[in-house]
Each structure stands twice: as structure tokens, then as C-alpha cells.
Specification:
By secondary structure, this protein is of the alpha/beta class. It has a single domain, classed as Rossmann fold (3-Layer(aba) Sandwich), CATH 3.40.50.2020. It contains 9 helices and 6 strands; from the N terminus they run H-H-H-E-H-H-E-H-H-E-H-E-E-H-E. The strands form 2 sheets. Strands 1-6-5-2 form a 4-stranded parallel β-sheet, sandwiched between helices. Strands 3-4 form a two-stranded antiparallel sheet. The protein is globular and about 50 Å long.
């Protein structure tokens, strides 16, 4: 069996999803070097971080973080692009696991009851084959042993991509697009709202606006990446 596995790896070598180099024995999805070099933000340990400040006076989120800094052509961008457009679900699980590891020791993110991924419109999810935020949430769930809930928040409007839109255009593009169902499932719960990239925060605010209708809810936010430092 081991010989067969080595033969498969020889014929179809497993490569790092971040840099493209061949993975060594014991490495999975992302090589050890890339894992070390991925640009972590450390925001989970700093409640007053720049991402949290995006929402001051607009949305009373408990805590906000992104795991990595994002830059065009960078390794994080490559991982997210593979997840969203090339069916590389393993990238999303890996990224979610990295978030989960960071949140385990982050005081502001303790006591989370439920993970909710930002939903895609059913039409877009069918086109893509899955919701990338759900895959990221799966990785977080594996590490933190917290359930994922996908039956309470829905995207009711098919929207254009947020790329290349101004801050105001982004907000108008996603305003009032989320619908809340079965709010009783979320009453008095601490929710972790998850997405892939956080830029202006428009999508998170729109989702937060819908969720804030729930009695006693507490919302924290986690994303894979944000703009580079």
C-alpha cells in the first residue's frame, strides 16, 4: 500500500497550493516554508485593530479579525483564488484551520456557540459548486469543535462582484440582501460570522444588520484576509 502511494506521488506529485513546489512527506496542502511565511495579522489578539475600527459607530460587533494580509499575486491571494475559481476546497479547509488555531487562544473570541458562513446566492453557489465561506467555516469547525449553521442566514439577491467597486458602491450592492430565518436558533448565542476577504466591510455589515434582529445575539467576525499592511 505504501509502495502504491509512493508510485502515485511519483506519477502525480502533490504540490503546495501556495507556491507550486512539490510537497514533502508529511506535508499537506501548503508546504512548511509557505506556512511559516504566510503574512499573519495577529489581529485576533488586538481588539482595537484596524478592521474592528471599520465598524465603529456602524455595527456593534464583539470582535473582528483577519488571519492574513492580502496582496495581489501573493501566496494568500493564490490560495483564495484556487478556492474560489479552481475547485480547490482543500485550500479553504486549510485556511479555516489556520483561523481556528489563532482563535483558540484569542480572549475576545472565546465562548463562540455557532459558526455562520456568509452565504452565496443559490445561483452563484450552483455555478461555483460550493460556497467558499462554508468550506472555510468547515476548517474552523474542525479545530474549534463548534457547529456550522447554514439554515438561518440566506442571500436573497444575486449581486455583482464587489471587485473594483468604491466603498459606497459596495454598500449599495449588498444593502438588504440577506434574509434571516429561524431566528430562535440563534437567540442568546455568540455567533462567528465568516467570509474569505474583508475589505470595506460592506458585506459583513449587511449580514450583521440581518442578524442583529435576533434577541440577545452577540456577533464576532473572522475572515481569511484583509488588505496588506
Amino acid at each position: 500500500m505504501k509502495l502504491f502511494k509512493h508510485l502515485i506521488n511519483l506519477l502525480f506529485p502533490r504540490v503546495c497550493a501556495a507556491c507550486g513546489n512539490i510537497l514533502l512527506e508529511g506535508e499537506d496542502t501548503v508546504c512548511t516554508t509557505c506556512r511559516f511565511l504566510l503574512p499573519k495579522t495577529g489581529y485576533e489578539l488586538h481588539p482595537d485593530n484596524p478592521l474592528a475600527q471599520l465598524f465603529y459607530g456602524q455595527m456593534p460587533f464583539n470582535a473582528v479579525m483577519a488571519e492574513f494580509f492580502f496582496s495581489k499575486t501573493g501566496k494568500v491571494q493564490h490560495l483564495i483564488h484556487g478556492l474560489k475559481y479552481h475547485g480547490c476546497r482543500e485550500n479553504g479547509v486549510f485556511l479555516g484551520q489556520e483561523i481556528g488555531k489563532s482563535l483558540l487562544n484569542a480572549p475576545s473570541f472565546q465562548g463562540i456557540d455557532i459558526i455562520i458562513p456568509i452565504p452565496l446566492h443559490p445561483k452563484k453557489e450552483k455555478m461555483r459548486g460550493y460556497n467558499q465561506s462554508s468550506v472555510i467555516a468547515e476548517g474552523i469547525s474542525e479545530v474549534m469543535n463548534i457547529p456550522v449553521e447554514e439554515k438561518c442566514l440566506f442571500r436573497s439577491v444575486f449581486t455583482d462582484t464587489q471587485t473594483r467597486k468604491t466603498r459606497d458602491q459596495r454598500w449599495n450592492n449588498v444593502k438588504d440582501i440577506f434574509v434571516l430565518k429561524c431566528p430562535e436558533r440563534l437567540e442568546n448565542k455568540h455567533i462567528l460570522l465568516v467570509d474569505d476577504v474583508l475589505t470595506t466591510g460592506a458585506t459583513m455589515m449587511s449580514a450583521g444588520k440581518a442578524l442583529m434582529q435576533v434577541e440577545g445575539i452577540k456577533i464576532s467576525v473572522a475572515s481569511v484576509a484583509c488588505a496588506g499592511n
